[in-house]
Each structure stands twice: as C-alpha cells, then as structure tokens.
Please model this.
Amino acid sequence: MRNVLITGASRGIGKEMVYEFSKNGDRVFLNYNKSGDEADKIAEETGAVSIKADISKSDEVKKMAEFIHNNYGGIDVIVNNAGISQIKLFTDINENDWDMMFDINMKGMFLVTKAFIGDMINKKKGRIINISSMWGITGGSCEVHYSASKAAVIGFTKALAKELGPSNINVNCVAPGVIDTEMNSHLSEEDLEQLKDETPLCRIGSVSDVAKTVLFLASDNADFITGQVLSVDGGMVI
Ligand code: NAP
Model:
C-alpha cells in the first residue's frame, strides 16, 4: 500500500484527490489548515488520516513529517496542492499580500518536499506532483503575485526533476485552467460563460478532471514522465 500525502485536501481539488487515491487503494494523508470539520468528515468517509499543519510554517511541517515517519514509515507520493489566490491590481498588492502568497504557494511546497524527500531518496523511488496554474504559464491580469508564485512552481518542478531523476523520483506539475471550486466563487455567471466561450472544450473544469490527472502521474503508467507541466484546462492554453 502506498502512502500518499495531499496538502490542502480539506476542500476543492485536494478533497477530490483524497477520494480518488483512497478508491485506488492508497493510504492517504489529508493535510489541512483551517477547515478541520471538513477534513474530519472526508477522513471518516474515506479512511484517510487527517493532519493539521500550516504548510508555510516549518515547525508545523516538521511535526507532520515526524508523525507520519514515526507511525507509518514515510511517504511514497507527495501532492503539493495547497494554495491560495487573490485578485488585486498590482498597484494594490502590499508586501503582506506578496509574502503570504509566496509563503503558502511556494515556500510551503519547499518545506513539505524537503520534510519527506529523505525517505524517497533512501528507497530510490517516489513521485512528487505539484499543482501550478495556467496563470503560471501565461500570467493573469490582477493576479501578478499568484501568477509569479505559480510560475515559480514550474521552475521548482523542472529543477527538482533533474536533480532527483537519478534517485528514481519523478517530479511533475499539473497546470489547471478554471476549475469549479471555492477559489473561483468570486466569478459571476457572466464571467463563467465568457470563460467557457474562451475554452476549446466549452466548459469549466471539474475537480475530478484534475484529480484523475494527478492519479495518472502517480501511477506506473507515468513511469517515464518527469519534469513536465501537464495542462488540465480544456485547451485554454495551447
Ligand atoms: P480551494 O478550494 O480554495 O482549497 C484550498 C485548499 O488549500 C484548502 O483545503 C485549504 O485548507 C488549503 N490551504 C490553504 N492554505 C493552506 C496552508 N497554509 N496550509 C495547508 N493547507 C492550506 O482551492 P482549489 O481550487 O482546490 O485549489 C487547489 C490548488 O489548485 C491550489 O494550489 C490552486 O492554486 C490550484 N489551482 C486552482 C484552480 C481553480 O480554478 N480552482 C486553477 C488553477 C490552479 P484549509 O481550508 O483547511 O485552510
């Protein structure tokens, strides 16, 4: 049985991944920060182990890693999914906004990966899947800090794939387009219609579209894939 850690799995895309990986027979560790009730409910339904940790805080990540290491012996698949977004004009983004975006979307990924990578290197086996965004590829207006953090995720993925390839660890990245989660709750019906019109496959993505892609990248079918950015966006970015 593989041990799979999914960060930010109390809601949205991460939550769906808990169901997908659990159905697949994996032991899932469901990380969350604020949504404890939701996390407990998912854990109850799936048998996943829920663990609270703010991934931007090194002491909390360390405790999470120690708990998993001491009780379950390490992690085989890391899905770095936790993230925040914010819509703001560049001129309104303050230093606190900037730091929070990078602390969660980028530093969190660094801390979590570093905390678990030792076991993978020792075993010479592992999968790391990082969630970026189409805005990390194209840049999104009024989301400069979000776009920059998601572009950083792509650079992180490619560099780490080169470094960890000889240890038989595959590192890939998924770049979702517009997915139906709370992160997009600010969009009006009109905005959503316009986004559908701009998408070759004429719809908004579902959490399942992304979760199934991540499951594929974690599977044996993706053995020879590393350092890639796989877009799950209905063709929005071609
Ligand atoms: P969401 O519905 O807003 O859920 C975000 C998740 O991240 C929650 O489970 C939240 O947990 C967790 N989280 C936030 N800060 C955290 C922290 N400091 N430590 C641990 N967990 C934290 O977002 P989503 O739409 O599912 O997005 C998931 C990922 O996909 C993000 O990286 C996002 O940037 C990316 N993405 C989303 C879209 C989209 O259209 N939705 C498109 C492209 C990329 P708590 O509630 O427990 O704090």
